[in-house]
Amino acid sequence: MLLEALYHVPRDKWAYAYDPKTIHLRVRTKRNDVDTVIAMTGDKYDWKSTYFEITMEKAASDEMFDFWEASVLPKFKRLTYAFRIVAGTESVYLVDSGIYQKCPDPTYGYFEFPYIHEIDVFKVPDWAKDAVFYQLLPERFANGDPSNDPDGTEPWGGQPKTDNFFGGDLQGVLDHLDDLVDLGINAIYFTPLFTSPSNHKYDIVDYRHVDPHFGDNALLKKVVEVCHEKGIRVMLDAVFNHCSEQFLPFQDVLKNGEKSKYKDWFHINKFPARVENGIATYDTFGFFGNMPKFNTANSEVKQHLLDVAEYWIKEIKLDGWRLDVANEVDHHFWRDFRTVVKKANPEAYIVGEVWSDSLIWLVGDQFDTVMNYPFADKVMEFFTGGMDGATFSDSMSSLLMRYPQQTNEVVFNLLCSHDTPRLVTRVGGDKRKQKLAVVFLFTYMGTPCIFYGDEVGISGGGDPDCRKCMIWDPEKQDRDMYDFYKMLINLRKNHKALREGRFRFLKADANPCIIYERADESFHFTIWMNNTDQKQTLSHPMVTTDWRDALSNEKVMPTNGTMNISLDPFGYRILFREIAK
Predict the structure, then answer these.
(1) pLDDT over 90 at 9, yes or no
(2) Catalytic one among 319, 353, 388, 409?
(3) In CATH terms, are 3-120 and 501-578 the same topology?
(4) What is the model's pLDDT at position 581?
(5) Which of 64, 162, 431, 474 is at 20 to 30 A from 394, Cα to Cα?
(6) pLDDT by residue (tens digit) across 386-434?
């Protein structure tokens, strides 16, 4: 047994309260190195009468480690615990004070979860578990009111550039809400809507007003009201890392320099504030001089932005905020942001834009979740032939072990966005691969998001090519792909097991074909994928004979305890059975 691989700390993703009664424990061991891990648990004030053992489940594995998991229901909301780790005839005991060959006398030196305080339990919005999000750029979705078009607006459907306009607006969104309902969408993520000189609106001038090219505040309120009537939640984009150079306080800094009362609202490194040889004398988003970075530690800036967050929650009954460039804003700000937003709407969904491991934002005091770009990267690499099944399994399992379960249940999963090439382009234009990736999206743990137009075949490279106008002419839409998305959305919405059930790979090896499962107390799903250009037959032991095809309802029978599924190149099949109670 490799003792150096054993790891547990009584905090973060390793020991946390899942709900007011349940504590989740995780332990790491070297891969395929131990047979059993047993959690030895009890109350430190009455160890003998409260003692009980739990055999932990091997929840996931990556290239180097196995991860073991258990749910514990302590009798008195306190938990003292140790781990007995068994490999063959060898046993060791992992406690807070170290690793021992003999069991240390309880409970001195054991791990502790001192008490489950309900106020400290990391709670995420339940509705987000059931959500199917649709991300749209209002400027490129639909032009419902030509009277508010910017000067020089180009004909709909032209080639997107960094600085051109096509006239999309909120009336266009309102006109097409029934199309989204037909698709099965029940949540919309809008990129920024507020006053801004650009087509993307990530350089905001006025945070309290809808950009006049989109409409006005009253129209946004109407859009949200109609969305709610149709069962659609609404999430807006909060750009609190930076603003536009046209933002009035920054204009004051440009005019008055060190005498400006707003000079501490920004990170001015040298006065006058200007761009010299292509580099600004103040901190910016990236190196864009037209996007000066806020000093969010400044109390006036903080209050200004927190008031904005609260204003829109209350004014339009907003359901959530997506936080732009969230990792570049200080943690103190985001803690106060969560307090303000959750007070205004306890069910608000807070999604940070962070492209890497985000655990430090996801322990209950800042975000509910993040945009899961690592998910998108691994899924794209697998379905474009960049890794085998075993590597994919290791990668996805590792992602699940990054965060507490409540975050995994609502992690914002996407396959592309306004910042990446389009999905069909990422898979080389092969619609079979696109469908495989979408099946995985809708049958994986977390909250799925579709980028507008993927469902009708819009292609495109990186920004700005990925920001093409939505295709509304049915003759130009990929209706087969639309029906496919609609079918998968409906399947997910009809089965809680595909939204909240456990996830586990059943087959993943050097062959780029995989089998995995989702299951809860009512239904058991298995998903079979042939990620090759040759016809394949996948096999897996299955004793029960009550399996059906989830899309056709056709009976599917194993042979002598083994299920054999024949799949076309880049084909898939979804089976399910109802669990007897």
Answers:
(1) yes
(2) 353
(3) yes
(4) 72
(5) 431
(6) 999 999 999 999 999 999 999 999 999 999 999 999 999 999 999 999 9
pTM of the full predicted structure? 0.96
Fold of 3-120: Immunoglobulin-like (2.60.40)
Provide the strand spans (E) within 353-442: 369-370, 412-414
Q: Is 500 a catalytic residue?
A: no
Phi-psi region of 490 (alpha: psi -120 to 50; beta: other; left: phi over 0): alpha
How many angstroms separate the CA atoms of 480 and 438, rounded?
A: 14
pLDDT higher than 80, residue 156? yes
Which residues in 359-384 are b (16+ Cβ under 10 Å) and which e?
eebbbbebbbbbbbbbbbebbbebbe
SS3 for 400?
helix
Among 484, 506, 507, residue whose Cα is nearest residue 433: 484
Domain ranges of the chain: 3-120, 128-240+299-497, 242-295, 501-578
Is the per-residue pLDDT at 54 higher than 90?
yes
Tell me which residue of 112, 8, 18, 9 sits closest to 408, measured CA to CA: 18
CATH topology for the 501-578 domain: Immunoglobulin-like (2.60.40)
Residue pointed to by tokens 């090896």: 509
pLDDT at 338 over 80: yes
Of the options 3.40.50.620, 3.40.50.300, 1.10.3720.10, 3.90.400.10, the CATH number for the domain spanning 242-295: 3.90.400.10
Residue 564, beta-bridge partner list:
539
Residue 580 pLDDT > 90, yes or no? no
Mean pLDDT of 135-148: 98
Q: How confident is the model at residue 56 (pLDDT cuts 50, 70, 90)?
A: very high
